[in-house]
Amino acid sequence: MSPIVEKVLADYGLLTAFALVGLTMAIAYWASDKLTRGRLHGSAIAILIGLILAAAIGGKKGVADLPVLAGVGLMGGAMLRDLAIVATAFGVKLEEFAKSGVIGAVSLLAGLFTSFLVGGLIAYAFGYRDAVSITTIGAGAATYIVGPVTGAAIGASSEVIALSIAAGLVKAILVMVLTPFLAKAIGLDNPRSAMVFGGLMGTNSGVMAGLAATDPKLVPYGAMTATFFTGLGCLLGPSLVFMINRALF
Amino acid sequence: MPIYGTALLAACLLVGVSIGKLLGTLVGVDADIGGVGVAMLLLIFSSDWLRRRGLMSPPSESGIIFWGQIYVPIVVAMAATQNVRGALGGGVMAFLAGAVTVVICFALVKILARAGRSQEVSR
Hints:
A: 0% strand
């Protein structure tokens, strides 16, 4: 690459990041549509491409180790990430949540604590003994957003944060792929069970793609509870769950 | 103006993270305890309060909505800048953490949905 172009890309790092990530999104959504017929959601493919690029090019800071791609680190850094995630709470209507009733709240809490518990136990089984890593990996088992938000807040290492994203991504992909096959067996054929499903699984992209492949009429019911999952997880992960883990380990 | 929305969003996050850090100091850890969650609640309640008073115009809202809509791209950027090579050794654990959780939650759907239905009947 000519030194002039290289300097422009490095100096305007954040713009380089916007362009590169935009291109990645386009490729991912194209692949989702053409290669998987929408079965795998574009967002999951895009995050997978991100992780693969980080492993292929980078070291400690992923692709941001390359000077021309340092801006990707700013785009995906704590400041903009937290800003964007808080913005997703905008327009959430608490009355909607009240409408989904007790069963919505119960399934949300059951889904979150199952994730924190199972993820944490598996982290423990693989030799992690510190509250920060155990909480972060448990949070990753909730969603690939709750993991890094929790990890960054309580000071987890980049490897542990990468693992939490990977755990959340595995969850999202499995929910997308398995839901249509398991729908009948778990009674997922009415609005009520769709709301329970959304609250338990919580992964937005997984729930929406999974329900869309099962019965598009169920999507809004699943989404209604799933939208609260990540926010509640970001609230509980670095607070209550971290405190519990800190008391235990 | 869109900047009003973005300013509100930024202010909520700054206040939320400050509260989170303060909570962290109170319990004696150098961490932000629930700051993003607090910021979300602040945004939900403050924007609702402003809307009721007619102070939330569509252009102002667009200054918040834009950021909410690029969160997946930002997560992609975040994924691309993690130490994935260092984490590859833990790939099996990450897979299990995600997969076992999904299997248990699938089983819970049936149980909870049934509990919900009997609740309805007893009403």
